[in-house]
Amino acid sequence: MANFLFVLSKDDVASATRCFQFSKIAHSKGHQVDVFLIDDGVNWADSTRDLTVKAATGDCPNDYLPYLVENEIPIGV
């Protein structure tokens, strides 16, 4: 088992989607995962934010973030 720290520093949908996706994948494979939001990435901590906006790949942050919350993955701001 490895430890992963994913740092999100951008406010764009693609970066957030990938960060949350990779966090979910790593955790589902049994790794310890932490997510940290810095700089413009802290905007993703806004509970009123629309998490259903699609990235160019067709997925969105809401496809992955609920898993992180349900599994109590630490998300620091």
Quick structural gist:
The protein is of the alpha/beta class.
Question: What do these coordinates show?
Answer:
The protein has 77 residues and is α/β, with parallel strands linked by helices. It is built from 2 helices and 3 strands; from the N terminus they run βαβαβ. It has one domain (3-76). 29% of the residues lie in helices and 18% in strands. A 3-stranded parallel sheet has the order 1-2-3, covered by helices on one side. It is globular, with a radius of gyration of 12 Å. The protein starts with a strand and ends with a strand. The mean pLDDT is 97.
Helix amount, in percent? 25-40%
Quantity of strands, as a count? 3
Counting structural domains, the number is 1
How many whole angstroms does the radius of gyration measure? 12 Å
Order of H and E elements: EHEHE
Number of helical stretches of at least 4 residues: 2
Q: Note poorly predicted spans.
A: none
The main β sheet shows up as:
3 strands, parallel
* Ends distance: 25 Å
Bulk shape? globular
Task: Give the integer mean of the pLDDT values.
Answer: 97
Characteristics of this structure?
18% strand; alpha/beta; globular; 29% helix
Strand-helix topology:
Elements: E1 3-8, H1 13-28, E2 32-37, H2 65-70, E3 75-76
